[in-house]
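User: Show me a protein chain along with its predicted structure.
Assistant: Here is one chain, sequence first, then structure tokens.
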Amino acid sequence: MNFSSKLLEDAVSEFGKLPGIGQKTALRLVLHLLNKEQAEVANFGNTLIKLKNEIKNCVVCHNISDFETCSICAAVKREKDVICVVEDTRDVMAIENTNQYFGVYHVLGGLISPMDGVGPSDLNIETLVERVRTTEVREIILALSANMEGDTTLFYLHKKLKEFNIPITTIARGIAFGGELEYADEITLGRSIVTRVPYEPSMLK
């Protein structure tokens, strides 16, 4: 693609680094911003800078938050003794949108993936173990994507947590293998949470 401006080319290049954004879409977004008032563009940029500078991770569950403790962990009416373990914040949002879950979460920050160089020590696993060890927990729900990385992580978490003799469940496989939680429709995901089943390593075979 030929550009009449190096500034335009650089801006398109930056937008093109975003996931799911091709060069044509990046150009359309940049041209859209160019047609906006300077104050609107400045507000757009400042919002992103503020987000990057001020966003926090909850000290309890690692969810993205405006405060040290996220609104879910701080909510009085949540069932604090039921912990739903998820890959990232997108999965928290997906499950919350079902209105079928009333416990709290633990965000791993990814999945175990040796091919990508991601091991257990790269994830928020030890804080989960410590959380289970030091607080009263009556159920742990492993709500991870139905793919190879998700199943590997499920197996590892089960080994780490089984010593506590707490029921460990996983969401029902209404979600096809290879699917990710954030893309599941709310009804399917909601049913998968409600009809969760006890987790057994043999389920992976």
